[in-house]
Amino acid sequence: MTDVGAIWVPLALSLKVALWATVINLVLGVVVAFGLSRWRSPAREMVDSVLTLPLVLPPTVLGYYLLVLLGRHGMLGRWLDGMGIHLVFTWQGAVIAATLVAFPLVQKAARAAFEAVDPQFEDAARVLGLREAAVFFRVSLPLAARGITAGALLAFARALGEFGATLMIAGNLPGRTQTLSVAIYAAVQAGDDRTAGIMVAVTSVTCVLALLLAGWLAPNPLRRTRS
Amino acid sequence: MSVDIAIRKTLRGDARQFELDVRFASEHRRIVLFGPSGAGKSLTLRAIAGLLSPDAGHVRVDGRTLFDSAAGVDRPARERGVAYVFQDYALFPHLTVAQNIGFGLVRGWFNPSRREHDDRVRHWLDVFDLAGVANSYPSRISGGQRQRVAVARALVAEPRLVLLDEPFAALDPALRGRMRSELLALQQRLDLLMLVITHDPADVEALEGHTIALRDGRVCP
């Protein structure tokens, strides 16, 4: 018999970590993407490339960077340690790992969405008396919302499945930092194929649902036509 | 002078550059900038609206200086009191007809309410016979209705000057004649100060305004 808690506890932790990572990425990704889409500079594509690195670097390498940065002897870690904040081997550390790995998915989608907004709509809003911040919240953001949401769903699915970087920085502490994908690895190692199988099915279904939702939201040619 | 314009701007593309040097002044309430595409009509309009910064010159409307390179004046588009009707209207696709018309009446970070309409919005919905489509989205209404929404959105804040970029080009020929006389009647009734750009001689004839011919970035003598 498989213990329900053995599946539910890592699943709940995974959902918590993925949700936090997605919320953080929504804010961060949208701000960075909007900045990049409006920034006229030759350095723009270089910055974009660097920000895309988490998509291609092995997650273990990202995890290593995070350890170097946030570990007890790391540059940022020492400073945080002084304030009583420890991120290594905590679920918050897992959130940072998942955020980093999924960031490019939100940023890329949001940038494409902002660049697809017809600048004439923003000009129309300016002529009608709006300040730049109001133009952003009332025109640019709503017109890009679908693309951003699709990117966020992809990022959620990616964060939910995060393994390598999470294992490096948060470890494999059952009930504390053991997320679903880490628990699957642990279950297979322990020869508990039944538990592993159920967790694999749960992860797969959740990710497929997120992707379906993303696909349904993403391409909407109607939004791009001028009216 | 109702309008006094002098705009110099050099635009550089990949291979060629375009020299815009447009000067004109007019007492008329209906001014028509007439010329072929590529003559610099839209650039002139954008400079008057504050969407394009000229290299030098001035823009004065009803005695108010909106731009003056010598005096260092360059008021942002939002403070110019100049309305702009875009060629394809640029109606916000995510907002209803009523929200589009009332867009400039609220200046904060939120769009006007979908349900409650400002009195001024209701007035223009009635004037243009749009009450029936007040809660429709721009993609769901006809071309003529779209143009009326764009004009209503421009007029609701009582601008000092209304700029219209090829206002009839997006309409089918049958509708074009009707909308021309509708716009002319509106201009006369409200005594609007209006600047229209067009490449269509039929517009020039119908609007009977002060016509200024533009070619290659300059006013034809």
Q: How would you describe this structure in keywords?
A:
heterodimer; A: 227 residues; mainly alpha; 0% strand; B: 221 residues; alpha/beta; five-stranded antiparallel β-sheet; globular
The total count of strands of chain A amounts to 0
**pLDDT < 50 runs, ≥5 residues of chain B:** none
Q: How are helices and strands ordered from N to C of chain A? A: HHHHHHHHHHH
The total count of helices of chain B amounts to: 6
Q: For the CA atoms, what is the radius of gyration of chain A?
A: 20 Å
Topology of chain B as a string of helices (H) and strands (E): EEEHEEEEHHHEHEHEE
Count the strands of chain B?
Answer: 11
The helical percent of chain B reads: 25-40%
Query: Main sheet of chain B?
Result: 6 strands, mixed
Structural class designation of chain B: alpha/beta
Mean pLDDT of chain A: 90
Strand order of the largest sheet of chain B: 7-8-9-3-10-11
Radius of gyration of chain B: 18 Å
Q: Largest beta sheet of chain A, briefly?
A: none
Provide an overview of this structure.
- The complex is a heterodimer of chains A (227) and B (221).
- Chain A contains 11 helices and no strands.
- Chain A is mainly α and 227 residues long.
- Chain A has helices spanning 4-38, 44-56, 59-70, 75-82, 91-116, 119-127, 132-160, 164-170, 180-189, 193-217, 221-224.
- In chain A, helix 1 (4-38) runs antiparallel to helix 7, helix 6 runs antiparallel to helix 7 (132-160) and helix 7 packs antiparallel against helix 10 (193-217).
- Chain B is of the alpha/beta class and 221 residues long.
- The longest helix of chain B has 18 residues, at 173-190.
- The model of chain B has no long low-confidence stretch (mean pLDDT 93).
- Chain A binds chain B through residues 118, 120-121, 123-131, 133-134, 137-139, 142-143, 222-223, 225-227, and chain B through 46, 49-51, 76-80, 82-84, 86, 88-94, 103-104, 107-111, 137-139, 146, 153, 157.
